[in-house]
Design brief:
9% of the residues lie in helices and 22% in strands. It is mainly beta and 374 residues long.
Length: 374
């Protein structure tokens, strides 16, 4: 069962399992290749440096003896489950090179890519059979595909972390359980050889956050109607500022990267606002996120944005605006923790967060999936 961890990013702080991506304001913590990386691009434990199956399968999609036998997955991907696979998934976090996503050991994974860009990049990456013929395209891994590939079991069950149920410091590129951070930058893929799932998926926990597709889409009219049916009337004025009757502020919360806390306040005019003292990001940061009912599903979301004009003017109460242009848009999931934030059960294979919007471009990367090759 997937666990939704609703985290409110506090950009510029280190508190919480989802404490602010260092680049939530558009920057990137990534530097060059770190000490201890795999200088020749190979897997540090002598495993599969090109992303092939770690159980000795053929990494180039062909038969190990040079015959024409076709592996179920293309180079750089592993089958899930290992026998009679239902899907293939990138063995490594992806690096975007010349418009396609590469899954290989020793590469520095791409970050600073939006969810929409990640979806497009995977779809632009061809699936090649043993002869080199294109037989399909990849896709961004769904949330269920990502989870099962990491916990080692398709469906219910599986381990909390790729390597087992007990957290161990230094197995993956993560923060230590006591909150200390040993790393200073993103690591080349495969640098932590024991950070691998039973299916051969590396670095899913730690190193960089990853986007996954939870299959959630926004329905503004449906959301407002559902709230009204429950006696919670929220309306947008001509300027898209959301308003409600007294008490509404206690029945909704805001999920938004860069904002401390989830509380919603109501001004004297009935506008829904947040206190400007809770803004944690840099001056150029765009505060985008969602409203969610406090007594309902955390996947029941209304797209919102904070009023940038009021933020710039330094006003104490920042209005919450409806993002009407996001109606029907996808809601992305963020999974996996990173080298600089998150540890313990907050990084479990069944944990995901939804506060980032599909146009957020902080330190989040991607991992593609595909159907098995027929």
């Amino acid at each position: 069962m997937l666990t939704l961890l609703v985290l409110l990013s506090c950009v510029g702080t280190k508190s919480g399992a989802d404490s602010a991506d260092p680049s939530s304001d558009g920057g990137s913590p990534d530097g060059g290749s770190p000490d201890g990386g795999s200088p020749d691009g190979g897997s540090p434990d002598g495993g599969s440096p090109d992303g092939g199956s770690p159980d000795g399968g053929s990494p180039d999609g062909g038969s190990p003896d040079g015959g024409a036998e076709q592996d179920p997955c293309p180079a750089g991907m592993v089958p899930v489950p290992s026998e009679d696979p239902l899907w293939c998934i990138d063995a490594y976090e992806g690096e975007l090179v010349e418009g396609v996503v590469l899954s290989e050991a020793g590469r520095l994974p791409t970050v600073g890519i939006t969810y929409d860009e990640s979806v497009a990049a995977c779809e632009a990456t061809p699936v090649l059979d043993a002869s080199g013929a294109e037989v399909g395209q990849k896709r961004l891994a769904t949330l269920a595909e990502w989870r099962d590939s990491v916990d080692g079991v398709v469906g219910e069950g599986g381990t909390t972390f790729p390597y087992g149920d007990t957290w161990i410091d230094d197995v993956c590129a993560t923060v230590n359980l006591d909150g200390t951070v040993d790393l200073t930058e993103t690591q080349p893929t495969g640098s932590f050889p024991d950070c691998v799932s039973a299916f051969g998926v590396y670095d899913a926990i730690g190193n960089i956050w990853e986007w996954a597709d939870p299959g959630i889409y926004l329905d503004i009219e449906g959301w407002l109607a559902a709230r009204a049916a429950a006696g919670l009337v929220i309306e947008a004025d001509d300027g898209q500022v959301l308003h409600g009757l007294d008490g509404v502020q206690d029945r909704v919360r805001v999920m938004m990267a860069g904002l401390e806390g989830s509380e919603v306040e109501r001004s004297e005019t009935g506008a829904l606002v947040v206190d400007s003292s809770r803004l944690q990001a840099g001056a150029d940061f765009v505060y985008r996120g969602y409203l969610a009912p406090t007594d309902g599903s955390a996947e029941d979301l209304l797209p919102v944005i904070l009023d940038a004009v009021v933020i710039e003017s330094g006003g104490p109460n920042v209005p919450i605006l409806l993002r009407s242009d996001e109606d029907g848009g996808a809601v992305p999931a963020k999974v996996g923790c990173a080298w600089y934030t998150g540890s313990g059960t907050a990084c479990g294979a069944d944990v995901y967060t939804l506060e980032h919007t599909r146009d957020f471009d902080g330190t989040i990367g991607l991992r593609c999936a595909s159907d098995p090759i027929p």
